[in-house]
Design a protein that fits this description.
The chain is about 0% helix and about 50% strand. It has six domains: about 80 residues, Immunoglobulin-like; about 80 residues, Sandwich (Immunoglobulin-like); about 80 residues, Immunoglobulin-like; about 80 residues, Sandwich (Immunoglobulin-like), CATH 2.60.40; about 80 residues, Immunoglobulins (Immunoglobulin-like); about 100 residues, Immunoglobulins (Immunoglobulin-like, Sandwich). The strands form 13 sheets. Strands 41, 42, 44, 45, 46 and 47 form a six-stranded antiparallel sheet that branches. Strands 33, 34, 36, 37 and 38 form a five-stranded antiparallel sheet that branches.
């Protein structure tokens, strides 16, 4: 603690003293700093000689590359954790009185825990099961301790070495082990290396069984799980040397592509990604009979039946022929010798024909497929429509499931036939005779067979044009009487008379004549007649012109001689 005052001077006289104030200097650094290394926890316990009136203390550790660690406390010691291995730390302490921090104490030196081995590697020798461990040499290490701990049982095995490698034997097959290595010197064991998990060679599978499946060229193999296995490989070797395998991460596996009518020896191995186990005990299996070959089929278009033939299979005592349709329909035949007939097939279906052979207890896989189409079905949802303008017949239907050729035949009662062909769902039959009844017949063809026909209801074509159209003038009343001959297919007629000043009059009748009265004298009129049925008008007859006369003294023969004029 210091007392402080100030005087002023002009180099001749000094002033009196100022008021005195007290100033306290910064606290002295702590003394007797010591540090102890806790090898197990990899931390330092720093202690010092405390002073009265100090509010807090801070201990600081600085490593060789400038990294800092610290702890603060109100006591006279504290712990600094998480030291870096293999470092020489400079340790100092400061304390604080609430106003100023002290100067750092004199630094002391302390070595940290030695670093553990790096780049630890381990490898299981698959044939012997020996575990080989290696690592990089550690500076200043006097020796090394490798610890191998079973992750299943906790059993520990130690390996001491003065060189950076050691071997561990007699480990349990299929067990997982955690490997750590420490180095040591005269004062501390190092921190352990990062744990490295390895797995011993898996144990061989047991209780292997094999079961063939009728109709398939594979065999189902099952076994009891073996310790340490990540997956399994089953190997089947036939008498001829044929070899086939399957792999699985469960306890079942299907070995594919076995040759029919063969004897196989089957063994299993467990695999953990690095090593394979010893082989299991073998089991023997006889495979299913071979399937028939050279399958052929012939379809009878009219009866939708098929005849199958094939080449016999060795050791077969019976056969089954099958036809499987796209619609799910199936037909079978069972015989003891090659060849059979399949009846009742559905129309318009593609069938897959296969044959199997049996040895009395198991059927062979299906033979090679043979495909054939039955005759198409009769077209469904058939409708027809007469186009009155063109006197043509439009016929439509629902398309089948497959691409087909369709033919429409339009027949009259007299035997006249017109046709059209298409691959779509409609067709137009042109060139129909007027006033005729036509019946349309639709058939489908798949290139091999023609199916049954669908027949429409008869349709009446456009009525024919009226013939012998005439127009007679009754001179006394200036009336035009139109007449004509009957038109085939007509139910009624429409006669139309047109003249000057937009004159137009229509007469509809089922007779063969019609009169137009009250006409203007000395005028030329044009007559046309159209035949009609229940749905169409026929074609218009050619123009017929007629001229009325004036005056009561008109000579009758003039009227009669000039009564009809054919227009162009």
């Amino acid at each position: 603690m210091y007392s402080t005052f100030v005087i002023a001077s002009n180099y001749i006289c000094n002033s009196s003293f100022s008021d005195t104030i007290s100033v306290e200097t910064a606290p002295c650094p702590p003394g007797d700093v010591q540090a102890l290394l806790d090898c197990q926890e990899n931390q330092a316990l720093v202690s010092w000689l405390g002073s009265r009136g100090m509010i807090s203390y801070t201990a600081t550790m600085e490593d060789q590359v400038g990294g800092l660690l610290s702890c603060s406390t109100i006591a006279s010691s504290c712990q600094i954790p998480n030291l870096k291995c293999g470092q020489v730390y400079a340790i100092s302490v400061i304390h604080h009185d609430g106003i100023c921090p002290s100067m750092p104490s004199h630094a002391i030196q302390m070595k940290s825990v030695p670093c553990g081995p790096t780049h630890v590697q381990s490898e299981v020798q698959c044939l012997s099961g020996v575990l080989s461990i290696s690592w990089d040499r550690t500076k200043d290490a006097e020796g090394y301790i490798a610890t191998v701990v079973s992750t299943n049982t906790g059993e520990m095995v130690y390996c001491n070495s003065t060189s950076p490698a050691c071997n561990v034997s007699n480990l349990q097959c299929g067990d997982a082990y955690s490997v750590q290595v420490r180095s040591y010197n005269g004062s501390c064991l190092s921190m352990p290396s990062q744990p490295l998990v390895i797995r011993e060679v898996p144990c061989a599978p047991t209780n292997v069984t094999a079961q063939r499946t009728c109709g398939r060229s594979s065999v189902e193999v099952s076994w009891h799980a073996s310790r340490g296995a990540q997956s399994y490989i089953a190997v089947a070797v036939g008498e001829s040397g044929h070899r086939t395998t399957c792999s699985s991460n469960t306890t079942t596996c299907s070995i594919p592509d076995l040759h029919c009518s063969s004897v196989y020896s089957i063994r299993l191995m467990a695999v953990d990604g690095n090593c394979s186990s010893l082989e299991s005990q073998s089991v023997t299996l006889r495979t299913v009979p071979c399937p028939p070959t050279n399958i052929q089929s012939t379809v009878n278009c009219s009866t939708n039946s098929a005849t199958l033939s094939w080449t016999a299979s060795l050791n077969a005592v019976s056969y089954r022929g099958m036809a499987l349709g796209r619609d799910g329909h199936n037909v079978t035949c069972d015989v003891k010798t090659p060849g059979c007939q399949l009846n009742g097939l559905h129309c318009g279906q593609e069938y897959v024909f296969v044959v199997t052979a049996s040895d009395g207890s198991c059927e062979s896989p299906n033979s090679m497929e043979y495909r054939h189409e039955t005759a198409p079905c009769a077209p469904q949802n058939v409708s027809r429509f007469l186009n009155c303008a063109f006197n043509s017949l439009n016929v439509s239907w629902a398309l089948g499931l497959r691409a087909l050729n369709y033919t429409v035949l339009a027949r009259t009662a007299g035997g006249a036939v017109l046709s059209c062909t298409t691959t779509t769902s409609s067709c137009i039959v042109a060139g129909l005779q007027c006033g005729q009844n036509y019946t349309a017949v639709i058939t489908a063809n798949n290139g091999e067979c023609e199916g049954p026909s669908s027949v429409t209801r008869p349709v009446q074509t456009v009525p024919c044009m009226p013939t012998s159209v005439q127009a007679n003038v009754e001179c006394a009343s200036n009336t035009v009487k139109a007449s004509w001959g009957p038109a085939a297919g007509a139910l009624s007629y429409i006669s139309v008379l047109t003249g000057p000043d937009r004159y137009r009059e229509t007469c509809m009748t089922s007779d063969l004549s019609c009169s137009f009265r009250g006409l203007t004298c000395a005028q030329t009129y044009t007559l046309n007649v159209v035949s009609q049925d229940s749905q169409c008008n026929g074609f218009i007859s050619p123009n017929i012109t007629v001229t009325t006369v004036c005056g009561q003294n008109t000579v009758t023969f003039n009227c009669e001689l000039d009564r009809v004029e054919h227009g162009k």
